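Anyone? Bumping this.
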Amino acid sequence: MSANTTKPAPGRTGPVPGAPLLEVDDLFVEFRTRDGVAKVLNGVSYRVEAGETLAVLGESGSGKSVTAQTIMGILDMPPGVITGGEIRFHGENLLRASTNRRREVRGSGIAMIFQDALSALNPVFTVGFQIEEQLRVRRGMSRKDARKRAIELLDLVKIPNPKGRVRQYPHEFSGGMRQRAMIAMSLALDPEMLIADEPTTALDVTVQAQIMDLLKEIQVERHMGLILITHDLGVVAEVADRIAVMYAGRIVEQSDAISLYRRPGHPYTQALLDSLPRLDLKGTELNTIKGLPPSLINIPSGCPFHPRCPRVQDVCKTEVPAQHRPAPGRLSACHFAEELLSGE
Amino acid sequence: MGRYVLRRLLQLVPVFIGTTFLIYWLVWSLPGDRFAGKCGERPCEPAYIAKMTEKFNLDDPLIVQYGKYMLNLLQGDFGITSKEVSVGELIANAYPNTLRLAVVALLIEAVIGLAAGILTGLRGRGFLDNLVLVSTLFLISLPVFVTGFVLQIVLGFELHWIKTTVSASPAPWGHLIAPGFVLGSLSMAYVTRLTRTSIAENKRADFVRTAVAKGLPQRRVVGVHLLRNSAIPVVTFLGTDLGALMGGAIVTEGIFDIKGIGNLVYDGILGKDGAAVTGVVTLLVIVYLISNLLVDLLYAVLDPRIRYD
């Protein structure tokens, strides 16, 4: 979609040398339900390089998790249907890859951490077993070696007493420890790319910070690509290199983190930033984004954000704004991005 | 765990005493002359009456009778029937037949029920699912004696595929397949539905998604992660059902004339033979209590979230 993505030669399968680590290219996904067709993803594109952290921001239902699930190949199909686009890992289109190849990539190429570690871990197996089974099944390790490695991994994610903990069940862990165990599990096969789907949402604020620090530390150490899906702008500021903001299944803005915080290039991003509680505005009412997220079965005409946009003009109601570059290194899908950025 | 087992064992004691006393009381305080019809057309000889009264402690209050009976029972003595046959011997002859029948029934319900449940649970809506739902509902709606007589008439009298009665003792395994199916049919339908629901529910569970995301082969995702979790309610049901199968065999044993304990109880009740009835029913109570205890312990093994202390 953008000029500098490397497209593999047509018909080619397998990794392409020099290609970016992960590229999502013009991805379309629909949910075909009894109530109609929900257009969940409408041309999502982003890329992540090794060692880079991309934060994907957006309200519930904006399509951030669906994108991640499509990358992992764990989208529920049906009702989900991929209607267009490519997902390239090292230049290889995963959507065209065989079932076996996709399975190979899971865990060792791209691994994923889920929001609620309690339900994401199997309640009837020990934490150790759940880490070890990947090593035994995928790497052919012996039980003993796998156990040793599992203990190392638990130690790596700073779980105290890993030797004892490895034998415990998920329900015997606290929320923060569970998420650490989940991270340890995702690292078992040394993935090049990690997708963290709201990894801290279910946790206490203090624990949130610890988990984010841990993720960041591991990512830097292992030079992994990291996609951090969140709706928490506070989390993003500290760890993200780049930010993609999603709305109604589209990426409405993409930019490096610092520039985006300094001056958003889309009214939706602006509204998200404005809705953060601020100490200097204590006592005043918190800003909210008026209206509800759009129905994906019936997406508004023109710019999907226009019914809620404070800067709405007539053109927004009829014309879908193209994603363009209002400034170097920035992408926005707003008719008035240039004006926003120039500080008008 | 050890304390839990001990506590459960202690809990069994009042349940055991309560149920057996109830049975004893029901059986031995039946109204009417106890000795009517026991000695053919004539009234019983005073000598026989005196002997039996002494044997069953009939002059004592009921609670003392029960106490003496239990003391003997705990030493393995089930007493004698009014025809002076050892009840223990009767049970020893009949029990293997009932046990075999129950095992066949349990196997049939476990194998067919689990297979049908897993298949429909995994596949979801479709022809097979509808077929299984309709046929299980059919089995659930039919009383066991109807299923029994229909199979006996169709497979036995019409097609001659099975023996209509299994009078031999010990009953050959092969002859017990049709009766076993009859006995297990209702539970088989429940097992199918339970498994189907459990699988369908867990199929979309987060931990199954995690297992896929870990790059495990589909076989392992289903065989280890999905089945293990879905098995918990099914195993519980199968375990408690073993006890129910033994007690529920009365009808099936009657239809197919299997010389099991169902038969024994039936004859005992008709002949107002208290000793036979209490003996067999007490044994059933014990089997039921033990199988329930085992299920509870197994439950802890299957689901570590159950804490026992």
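Late reply, but here is one note on the structure posted above: Chain A has one domain: 2-8+15-109+189-342.
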